[in-house]
């Protein structure tokens, strides 16, 4: 969505720039025409039609020896069309006005360019330089394609798991490597996004190149990942219920690689408890992790009701049975 809005805004700004340039060119042409008129362009004046004169006849001579028709022609004053001459002052005024309009247009053009710089960053409005900053050039985004909602990678999770989640989200366009590379930035955050922006576009030509670079950068999360020792070191908090602790323990166990079997999880989960839970859980016959959680919850309820006392050194049992293990409060 951000790319589409940016493209629309760039197109609108480019249209305004083209309009301003066109106006400046038109005003420049008018100014040049006015200057040519000032240099002295020939003015065409229409000549009047000659009056018809009768042939010479001595009988037509008057007292002064001229024919009456000729005398009439001498007194005839034709009305020649007149044209208002262009003065130097009028040309200078038009020229000054044209210069002011051109300067105003140039100022608007500069202001528009400054706005574009502020929006895109210094020199980013230049299409050539903007293309150089893209990791993948000439990306064609389908019109009906909608960018999925990604879980942002913060730089601490397992990179393999994150790549699998990303590919599942991009299943519709998984065959388009350019789209995979281009939208990978949308599922990154903080330092991982900074890492992506610093990649060299000459070294990332295919999706495999980006995957290899991502794995090299964050492989330490796998090497330093959680293991079985981390599970054994976990303890239940005093203010934490059995179910809350079991959920937290299971979330950590899910990150252990290679994955654990159900039997191994039951053993490690039991060993993470202290007395009096430990003694009862290790003796349980639970075959599934959920069954073990249910037993731990029953122990928690018994402790809350005060039915479980402190265990003896003999694992909580006396020679006579379990009489000392439970106290009766009836």
| Beta strand % | under 5%
Question: What overall form do the CA principal axes indicate?
Answer: elongated
Helix and strand composition category = mainly alpha
Assign a percent range to the helix content: 40-55%
Q: Could you give the order of the helices and strands?
A: HHHHHHHHHHHHHH
Distance between the termini: 69 Å
Total number of strands: 0
| Mean of residue pLDDT values | 75
Over the alpha carbons, how many angstroms does the gyration radius reach? 48 Å
Low confidence ranges: 42-48, 312-330
Oligomer: single chain
Total number of helical segments? 14
Main beta-sheet annotation: none
Protein architecture, described:
It is elongated and about 115 Å long. The two termini are 69 Å apart. By secondary structure, the chain is mostly helical. Among the domains are: 1-35 and 88-133; 159-223, no CATH class; 228-305. The protein contains 14 helices and no strands. α1 (2-38) packs antiparallel against α3.
């Amino acid at each position: 969505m951000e790319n589409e809005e940016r493209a629309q805004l760039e197109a609108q700004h480019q249209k305004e720039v083209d309009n301003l340039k066109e106006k400046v060119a038109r005003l420049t042409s008018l100014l040049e025409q006015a200057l040519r008129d000032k240099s002295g362009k020939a003015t065409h004046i229409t000549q009047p039609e000659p009056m018809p004169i009768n042939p010479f006849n001595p009988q037509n001579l008057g007292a002064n020896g001229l024919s009456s028709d000729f005398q009439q022609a001498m007194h005839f004053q034709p009305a020649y069309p007149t044209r208002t001459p262009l003065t130097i002052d009028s040309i200078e005024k038009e020229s000054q006005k044209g210069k002011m309009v051109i300067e105003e247009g140039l100022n608007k053009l500069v202001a528009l360019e400054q706005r574009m710089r502020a929006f895109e960053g210094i020199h980013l409005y230049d299409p050539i330089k903007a293309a150089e900053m893209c990791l993948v050039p000439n990306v064609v985004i389908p019109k009906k394609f909608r960018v999925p909602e990604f879980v942002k990678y913060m730089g601490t999770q397992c990179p393999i798991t994150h790549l699998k989640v990303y590919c599942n989200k991009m299943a519709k366009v998984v065959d388009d490597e350019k789209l995979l590379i281009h939208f990978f930035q949308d599922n990154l955050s903080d330092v991982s996004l900074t890492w992506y922006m610093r990649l060299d576009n000459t070294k990332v030509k295919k999706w495999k190149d980006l995957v290899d670079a991502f794995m090299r950068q964050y492989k330490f999360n796998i090497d330093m990942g959680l293991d079985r020792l981390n599970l054994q070191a976990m303890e239940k908090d005093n203010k934490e219920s059995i179910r809350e602790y079991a959920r937290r323990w299971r979330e950590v166990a899910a990150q252990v690689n290679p994955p654990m079997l159900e039997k191994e999880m039951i053993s490690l989960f039991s060993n993470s408890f202290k007395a009096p839970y430990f003694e009862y859980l290790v003796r349980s016959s639970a075959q599934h992790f959920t069954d073990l959680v249910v037993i731990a919850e029953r122990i928690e309820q018994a402790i809350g009701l005060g039915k479980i006392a402190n265990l003896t050194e003999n694992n909580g049992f006396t020679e006579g049975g379990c009489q000392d293990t439970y106290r009766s409060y009836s």
